Task: structure prediction
Amino acid sequence: MVTAAWTGVDPEWSREIDVPSTSGADAPGTVRRWHLLDNGAQLARRGLTPAGTLLCVHGNPTWSYLWRTLLAAGSDPAHPWRVVAVDQLDMGFSERTGTFRRLADRINDLGDLTAALGLDGPVVTVGHDWGGVISLGWALAHPRQLAGVGLTNTAVHQPAGTNIPPALRLALHPAVHRWGTTTSDTFLRVTHSLAHPPLAADVRSAFMAPYRGTGRRAGVGNFVADIPADPSHPSFPALSRVAEGLRGLKVPALMLWGPRDPIFSDRYLKDLIGRLPDAKVHRFEGAGHLVAEDRNIAAPVFEWLAGHRRDKDNGPVDGPAPEPPTPDPGTGLPPLWAPLTELAAGPAGGDTAVAEMAPDGSVARSLSWQELERSIAALAAGLKEAGVGPGSRVSLMVPPGVDLTVVLYACLRLGAVVVVADAGLGTRGLSRAVKGATPDFLIGIDRALAAAAALGWSGRRISVRDLPAGRRRVLAVETSLAALARRGAGLSPEPASRVPDADPDADAPAAVLFTSGSTGPAKGVLYTHRQLAAMRDTVAATLGIRPGARLVAGFAPFALLGPALGAVSVTPAMDVTVPRTLTARALGDAAAAIDATVIFASPAALRNVLVTRGGLSGAGLEALGRVELLLSAGAPVPESLLAEVQRMVPLASLHTPYGMTEALPVTDISLEQIRSAAADAAAGTVAGAGNGVCVGLPVHGARVAVIPLASDGSAPGDQPVTAAGVTGEILVSAPHVKEAYDRLWLTQRESVRTAGWHRTGDVGHFDAAGRLWVEGRLAHVVTAPGAVVTPVGAEQAIERLDGVGLAAVIGVGPAGTQAVAAVVETVPPARRAGPAAPQLAGRVRAAAREAGVSVSAVLVVPSQPTDIRHNAKIDRTRLSRWASAVLAGGRPGTP
Result:
């Protein structure tokens, strides 16, 4: 029995039970004493009837203490569940048997225990580490009782061609094994060190408690020795039976994962998803091997249980998602590439379709519509022969241009899922995104392949160009796009015949596109083929971009969408992942090359174009003068910036669509409409006009609403409103809204908790004319005493001051009592960061006051910390931490 008061454990849960063995490592009838943490008696004493039983199985070298938060949650009268957390034999406070127990033995042991407990259904197993395999073995042997399976970091199969993790190889080494696992407590201490953040001293002590002394640790060593490292191991057949048995498991499954696990990495999660494809999966970024310690897993587990209980009572309810209020686009929606195919077959087939520019202003490469169609078909045939098919995840690390266009559409036609995470996320963010997506194939330029080799990204590697044999070996590259295209072209006279006869299912996954990561770790956004096609049609209908348009794409998403719109597309000479590298000369040269009618560039790109406009060539200046439409998005675009750009493109209609990776676009507004909205705000003639960036009216097929903010800055309701002047979280419903967040089940549920709507995380309001005004991010709302302050309106007012560039309004201090601070980037840049000079501080306070915000402190920085992709989205969370330290008397440093 547990006699000490371990943190988080109710002593009433601790019990022991004698269990007769039926088979396995012990002779039949041998009685073994088990220790459990079990809240069943407590529930009975309180008169609570549990909805079922959670059977929780720890791994090595933990014990039932790992599941204390599930025990506490299951004891809540609001959702009572019996939770039985076992200490496996030779582990925790259960009996030390002196017998080596293998995987099959432990599965049998668990069955003996549940029989002794009289455990009947419904039972949901929960397992961690090697306890995951054991719990799954029990689940497969007890289908009548089984109602579901839950897993945290574990594995059931070693992927072909890979070694077991280095930490386990070391622990198995004969020179290390006994000393590291049994003679000393090293294995325990190393395991405990994997917690993020580190375990508190009392928690660490609790985990060590059952294993004090060499005699108490034999099970720890035996558990490690029983790892089936290869098919010759005695436990390999048992592991294989579990692994293959999962494919027939039809009960609900939940996987909660810590990606920072050096043992059970994302490659094991990928394998489990392949065996349990309908499982709900959530990866907790920053969490590791001890995910149950790193994050609150009790809340999602019981939310999942409640959802499936509703399923049983009322039909499927995996998150509120009734029929959306927008019209169904229909099953006959042409696939994304339909306009491209039609143009290739028509009279315009010989015209330029896609091009990319060289730094000297010449066209580096181009393809006609017919050449593009043939190139896509040939590459698709080659990729198909190489193993790319429906559902294959293909990470594309190729700069926008001809190569990326060809490989993107080839993959989509095959039904593969393209994974797009650009270098704008930075090395760390990009690596996190790629590892989380676990691609089957990684196609990239040399630099991306070198990163893949150095950082251990998964996937079979394909280079863009043919590489020398030595370089291929170093980068573990199998082949190249060029070789696959040659192979595909030679498979038959018509390479298209090697591509699937039917288009992929409209509701099949098509792409995982990563967010910018400007408000936390970048999230993968999953789109189906139907949603991508709906995005194409929304952009075409809203902005009037039709086949025959000629597009300069200085923004990566539009470089890829251009061919789907039937638009001639050219990529200017720039690093598209760093928008501010676009120069006026490069923009003008690209526009002249195709006689452009449309330009798309981010605000940061346009700022640099204006700075460098002196370098425009005569031909470039003339070409810009013929542009009919200029689009800019990715961050708020000041009217003053648009006004300067208008002088460069005098005939163009300037538009700033508002949207996000999850829904592009949501609303649209022109420069003329921006000025009209500003006039309405200044005159006060339209209720609700003002305070934020006016982003206009919903785009074709979209509906927009808000959920009003509460006094604590949250948006807790579920009733959408469109009344003028009500500030709240912005919602959108449209056929082109994302399918889901990839492997982020909890994030997805939160985003759709208002039935039929996507909750954007932005805050704003409508004016009486129905226009939407964006006031900032929900996460950046400042909760001052007696007031909720949204940042954008005051920031705009401050940015209109002479000598001020970008401004950020942030909160400092505890929520509910935050002081409002303004951090400004001065022009010219300040030499060092710190408190603003009194004169500047006074001007900033006065400007903010006119916008209705009282600023307590003003600080300056040489430059604002912005996201890499847009070079414009300020990292307000980082600024808030920095400002808090400065105002508390710390050294300013650099935010």
